[in-house]
Amino acid sequence: MLGTEPEIKARYVKTGQVKLVFNPILDHGDRSVQAHQAAECAGEQSMFWPMHDRLFEDQGSLYGGDTREVLKRHAAELGLDTAAFNSCLDEQRYLEKVQQQDAYRREIGIRTRPTLDINGQLVVGPQPFPAFEAVIEPLLTQ
After folding, report:
1. Which of 22, 23, 95, 130 sits in a 20 to 30 Å window from 104, CA-based?
2. DSSP assignment, residue 115?
3. Is the sign of the CA dihedral 131, 133, 134, 140 positive or negative?
4. Burial grade of 61 (CB within 10 A; 0-12, 13-18, 19 or more)
5. What is the 3-state secondary structure (H, E, C) of 18-59?
6. Residue 142, burial from CB neighbour count under 10 angstroms (0-12, 13-18, 19+)
7. Best CA proximity match to 92, nearest among 138, 33, 142
8. 93-132, pLDDT tens digit by residue?
9. Burial letters 67-92, b for 16+ CB under 10 A, else e
């Protein structure tokens, strides 16, 4: 998704035509829960998507060491206010939200990643930009 996501953002999100909403898939235990909370904590500083991208690009580090320390290191490397970020993460401020988002994606039938729900139509798997364009463009003319 990282290959297509920037194109979707540039073409549709930045122009205000599409809203991109992320729903986590919590299928790797506590590491998933902590990583998704980290993205939400970064979002308090308008850095949700940069943290999201960092976590996807560096998934291996989450499984090779202390997850919370890795997340805090990413926050520092992204230039976040680390005291605020660390407090948010330590408090598990977004635990309930992340769990609710995961329940919602299961409820609507999202089982694999990436999957995009475009007005109820699920686009499953890593697709090239034209696959998304073919679903989005007709909706914009309605």
Report:
1. 130
2. E
3. positive
4. middle
5. CCCCCCCCCCCHHHHHHHHHHHHHHHCCCCHHHHHHHHHHCH
6. exposed
7. 33
8. 999 999 998 998 888 888 887 888 888 788 888 889 998 8
9. bbebbbebbeebebeeeebbebbeee
Report which DSSP code applies to 123. Answer: E
> Domain map of the chain by residue range?
1-21+110-142, 24-108
Among the listed residues 21, 1, 80, the one whose alpha carbon sits nearest the alpha carbon of residue 46:
80
Residue 72: predicted pLDDT: 96
* pLDDT, tens digit (0-9, with 9 covering 90-100), for 26-55: 888 889 999 999 999 999 999 998 999 899
Distance separating alpha carbons of residues 63 and 77, to the nearest angstrom:
19
Show the tokens assigned to 78.
Answer: 């992204």
